[in-house]
Amino acid sequence: MAKLTVMFGADPQSEHSLDKDQMKVGRAMDCDIVVDNLGVSRHHCTIVKEGDNWAVVDGGSNNGTYVGGQKIQKHVLKHGERIILGKHSLVYDHHGYAAANAATASKKGPGAMGGEMTMFVDQAQLAKAMASEVGGKRMALVLKQGGRDVVVPLLKDETVLGAADNADIPAKGFLVKPVQAKVVKNQAGHRIVSQGGWRAVKVNGQKVADAPLKQGDVIQIAGSSFTYRPA
């Protein structure tokens, strides 16, 4: 028997014995392994038995399926490998067996995200970061979308916040510029840099032009707010 452990960063979320020849993975409630994450497609991938081994097969997901930092269509799993899906990963244990009732831990109630639209992320950058920094501290901005927290890891040297359609993180509102602010990576962590204009960029309620960020800071632009915290 083999198993998969669903991880969020370095934290295990649930365990699942691979007790069927095919097991669907995704955000939809009819999946065998539910990953409640807007970066994960409703039916993201399938774990398939091949002789004594197991393979992961991408199901045409929007953001792709990654193993070892590489995007795959099909990949035969080796013991200890991680399948990267958005901010979550699935750790493959060729000899493991899930504890009783552990597989039900990720099954959510009616409030789960299965019906929401998939949020597009730069999955290639995220997968490489997770492959090389598992257990490490990565920072993110957390925003509200549809009443839920959406975690956006800060993977770039500069992350753009603003009203532009191609902004890394949308910040809509009257007089908000296409690029209203940038979160800039430096050796100490990140800084928030305002790009001027009529709309103020605030941190914890105070107007800033260029300020270092610390864990728990809340950035405000018009009616949008973003919390700076570990991914």
3D structure, described in words:
This protein has about 230 residues and is mostly beta strands. The protein has one helix and 22 strands. The protein has one helix at about 125-130; strands at about 5-10, 10-15, 20-25, 35, 45-50, 55-60, 65, 70, 75, 80-85, 90-95, 140-145, 150-155, 160, 170, 180-185, 190-195, 200-205, 205-210, 210, 220, 225-230. A six-stranded antiparallel β-sheet has the order 2-1-11-10-7-8, covered by helices on one side. The two termini are about 30 Å apart. Mean pLDDT is about 85; it is low at about 100-115 and about 130-135.
Short characterization:
The protein is mainly beta. It contains 1 helix and 22 strands.
Tell me roughly what share of residues is in helical segments.
under 10%
Q: What portion of the residues fall into strands of 2 or more residues?
A: 35-45%
Please work out how many helical segments DSSP would assign: 1
Structural class: mainly beta
Are there runs of 5+ residues with pLDDT below 50, and where?
A: 101-115, 132-136
The sequence of SSEs as H and E is EEEEEEEEEEEHEEEEEEEEEEE
Radius of gyration: 19 Å
What sort of overall outline do the alpha carbons produce when their principal axes are compared? elongated
Oligomeric state: single chain
Topology of this structure?
Elements: E1 3-8, E2 11-17, E3 22-26, E4 33-34, E5 45-50, E6 53-58, E7 65-67, E8 70-72, E9 74-76, E10 82-85, E11 88-93, H1 123-132, E12 139-145, E13 148-153, E14 158-162, E15 169-170, E16 181-186, E17 189-194, E18 201-203, E19 206-208, E20 210-212, E21 218-221, E22 224-230
Parallel strand pairs: 3-4, 14-15
Antiparallel strand pairs: 1-2, 1-11, 3-5, 5-6, 6-9, 7-8, 7-10, 10-11, 12-13, 12-22, 14-16, 16-17, 17-20, 18-19, 18-21, 21-22
